[in-house]
């Protein structure tokens, strides 16, 4: 197993380097002078020269790449040209929004998709099965941004003043200023700069609410999360439901399931223990692959629901040519994608020994 | 081992002809493929004959046009067959007082062509890369496939956004950006087919009698690789249409006043709470189109996969 994990790790390293080179080149290729984009009218040739020197833009491009890689390994992603703050700081501030949205979207997709898929396979060709498949087909065909807008209209306009009304924008009710858990626990004294990792976790509102036992905050955060998470999670849900259905269908026709039934096992055990375990293997891969969909969905959904997450910041920064930020955010997202796929592969290898030895 | 390429090839052709006939038969008996084909067929007719279906010029503002007295730019949907007295604009007018129905009708052209062109381009490039990688093996294979891994490592939409930003917003560049994100899928598929077939005896026999690599690729490898690519391609058209609409929605794809569904959505999203119909109809149009390709793709997968038939 250790050998398998190591081999998988060594596969990922060149890909991450490739990502860094591609992102670096893409960011340089964005047309327009960053100096002009950042300083606008104030940009005179002298000021721009100083700007280039300060940001290392006067070095040859390969040198810039090497410096960038060295800094990246040390956790320094440079300063954002637009915000004049370290990209790492912006990342710890904005990534939690996207992580929280993504986790809830996947949670929604898995917790609804897997049971629906399994049930419709078990009741193959029943009304439930046909309905699920029609629903799943419609689900994968819906544009995320359109679904988001429609949900916002339904729950914020049509259902306004009913108990079902949900807020169409933001992460918390305006004015809410939750106390981070590390302050409440006295880990960080007032006036002290908290560690980035603490800030990161405290900005995941639902987690912070749980850690500070603040039920009001939890409800508020969840209410704001429902619509964007459903919008982002719908396509993965449809894919997961289809995958679990076909996978369970295949397993249910296997000899060992028949044997289990012949032994007189209870139906619950046949399906729950013998069939599900094997059927859910491919589903794990699909869940890992859906991470990309979740990120793409987050870019669009954050725009619709006015969430200042990684996706929206990235799109805004591309248009304003803040290439240090674009570079940093893209590398982190892509590297995260590679790592998640690696974890999925390793899990798969753990669950299915045949893969390890191939 | 005695090689009889002519006979082998003949046998191969007979088998593949039967497979195609069988596939066609399966396709005609698959409800989802039929429904998908009907939807796509209808959309193709609408796209070709858009001027016949549209009631107005899709980019013409109705202000100051005779017979269009004092209409508000964004009024709720007014559908004649539901008892509305305004038969002029079936789906109402958009923010610039253009006929929404005609815009949605003309949008069919853009979306269908974007979907089909992107996927055709990426199939051509991807298959060429995949076959080269699989056939050449060694270092060439390694370089091509690692490059594909890197492209796959980026979430598709994000990569497309970055590419379009570099090339500049516009429909053609959006098309190119999306094409690049799709290439690895086809490269992987075709490479896998090459690898599975390259060492088989009939290919070795061909090579032994001195057939050129081109002949081997065109006569043996491509026909064997094509089925999964067609299925993946049909499903891909739907995704490409969704991506193109998303890019237009972000302002990076089709530019106003081009009637494109994502672009119409993007123009009207700030008016969601006052005139939701502007958002509703283009979205439904996207959904129906993508659904058509997904249904056909699903049906084709079932029809073309010989392994499923045996069960």
Topology:
The complex is a heterodimer of chains A (358) and B (311).
Chain A: H1 2-29, H2 34-39, H3 45-54, H4 61-73, H5 87-122, H6 127-141, H7 144-158, H8 181-184, H9 196-202, H10 205-211, H11 215-252, H12 255-262, H13 267-304, H14 310-319, H15 323-351, H16 353-356
Helix pairs in contact in A: 1-15, 5-6, 5-9, 5-11, 5-13, 6-11, 7-11, 7-13, 10-11, 11-13, 12-13, 13-14, 13-15, 14-15
Chain B: H1 5-28, H2 31-48, H3 50-53, H4 100-136, H5 138-153, H6 156-167, H7 171-198, H8 201-208, H9 213-249, H10 261-268, H11 277-304, H12 306-310
Describe what you observe in this structure:
The complex is a heterodimer of chains A (358) and B (311). With 358 residues, chain A is an all-alpha fold. Chain A has helices at 2-29, 34-39, 45-54, 61-73, 87-122, 127-141, 144-158, 181-184, 196-202, 205-211, 215-252, 255-262, 267-304, 310-319, 323-351, 353-356. Chain A is globular. Chain A starts with a helix and ends with a helix. The mean pLDDT of chain A is 85. Chain B has 311 residues and is an all-alpha fold. Helix content of chain B is 72%, strand content 0%. In chain B, α2 (31-48) crosses α11, α4 runs antiparallel to α9 (213-249) and α9 (213-249) packs parallel to α10. The longest helix of chain B has 37 residues, at 100-136. In chain B, 46% of the residues are buried. The A-B interface holds A 14-15, 18-19, 22, 26, 29-31, 137-138, 140-147, 149-150, 152-153, 156-157, 253, 291-293, 295-296, 299-300, 303-304, 314-315, 318-319, 326, 330, 333-334, 337-338 and B 32, 146-147, 149-150, 153-158, 161-163, 165-166, 168, 238, 242, 245-246, 249-250, 262, 265, 269, 272-273, 276, 279-280, 282-283, 286-288, 290-291, 294-295, 298, 311.
């Amino acid at each position: 197993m250790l050998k398998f994990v190591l081999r998988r790790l060594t596969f990922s390293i060149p890909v991450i380097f490739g990502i860094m080179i591609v992102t670096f080149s893409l960011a340089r290729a964005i047309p327009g002078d960053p100096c002009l984009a950042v300083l606008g009218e104030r940009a005179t040739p002298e000021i721009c020269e100083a700007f280039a020197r300060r940001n290392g833009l006067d070095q040859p491009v390969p040198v810039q790449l090497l410096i960038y890689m060295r800094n990246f390994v040390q956790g320094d992603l440079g300063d954002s040209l637009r915000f004049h703050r370290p990209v790492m700081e912006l990342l710890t501030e904005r990534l939690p929004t996207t992580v929280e949205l993504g986790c809830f979207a996947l949670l929604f997709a898995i917790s609804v998709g897997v049971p629906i898929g399994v049930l419709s396979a078990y009741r193959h060709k029943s009304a439930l099965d046909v309905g699920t498949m029609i629903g799943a087909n419609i689900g994968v065909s819906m544009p995320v941004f359109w679904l988001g807008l429609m949900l916002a209209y339904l729950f914020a306009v049509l259902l306004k003043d009913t108990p079902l009304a949900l807020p169409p924008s933001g992460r918390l009710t305006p004015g809410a200023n939750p106390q981070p858990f590390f302050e409440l626990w006295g880990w960080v004294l007032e006036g002290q700069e908290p560690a980035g990792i603490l800030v990161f976790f405290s900005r995941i509102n639902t987690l912070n609410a749980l850690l500070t036992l603040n039920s009001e905050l939890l409800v508020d955060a969840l209410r704001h999360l429902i619509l964007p998470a459903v919008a982002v999670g719908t396509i993965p849900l449809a894919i997961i439901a289809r995958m679990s259905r076909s996978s369970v269908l295949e397993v249910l026709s296997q000899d060992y399931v028949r044997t289990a039934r012949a032994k007189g096992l209870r139906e619950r055990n046949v399906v729950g223990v013998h069939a599900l375990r094997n059927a859910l293997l491919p589903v794990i891969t699909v869940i890992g692959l859906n991470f990309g969909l979740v990120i793409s969905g987050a870019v669009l959904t954050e725009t619709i629901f006015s969430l200042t997450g990684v996706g929206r910041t990235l799109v805004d920064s591309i248009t304003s040519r803040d290439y240090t930020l674009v570079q940093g955010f893209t590398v982190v997202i892509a590297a995260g994608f590679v790592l998640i796929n690696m974890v999925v592969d390793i899990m798969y290898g753990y669950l299915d020994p045949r893969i390890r030895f191939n | 081992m005695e090689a009889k390429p002519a006979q082998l090839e003949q046998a191969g052709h007979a088998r593949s002809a039967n497979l195609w006939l069988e596939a066609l038969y399966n396709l005609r008996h698959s409800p989802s493929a039929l429904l998908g084909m009907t939807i796509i067929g209808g959309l193709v007719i609408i796209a070709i004959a858009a001027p016949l279906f549209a009631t107005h010029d899709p980019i013409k503002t109705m202000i100051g046009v005779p017979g269009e007295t004092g209409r508000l730019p964004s009024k709720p949907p007014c559908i004649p067959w539901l008892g509305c007295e305004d038969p002029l604009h079936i789906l109402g007018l958009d923010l610039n007082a253009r006929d929404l129905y005609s815009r949605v009708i003309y949008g069919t052209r853009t979306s269908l062509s974007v979907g089909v062109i992107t996927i055709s381009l990426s199939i051509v490039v991807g298959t060429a890369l995949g076959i080269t990688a699989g056939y050449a093996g060694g270092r060439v294979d390694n370089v091509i496939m690692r490059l594909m891994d890197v492209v796959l490592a980026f979430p598709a939409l994000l990569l497309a956004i970055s590419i379009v930003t570099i090339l500049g917003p516009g429909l053609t560049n959006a098309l190119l950006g999306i094409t690049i994100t799709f290439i690895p899928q086809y490269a992987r598929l075709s490479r896998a087919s090459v690898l599975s077939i390259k060492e088989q005896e009939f290919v070795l026999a061909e090579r032994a009698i001195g057939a050129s690599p081109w002949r081997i690729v065109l006569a043996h490898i491509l026909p064997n690789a094509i089925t999964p690519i067609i299925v993946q391609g049909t499903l891909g058209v739907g995704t490409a249409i969704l991506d193109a609409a998303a890019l237009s929605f972000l302002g990076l794809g089709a530019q106003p006043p081009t009637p494109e569904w994502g672009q119409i959505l993007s123009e009207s999203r700030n008016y969601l709470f006052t005139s939701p119909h502007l958002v509703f109809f283009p979205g439904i149009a996207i959904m129906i189109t993508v659904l058509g390709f997904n249904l056909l793709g699903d049906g084709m997968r079932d029809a073309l996969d010989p392994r499923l038939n045996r069960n």
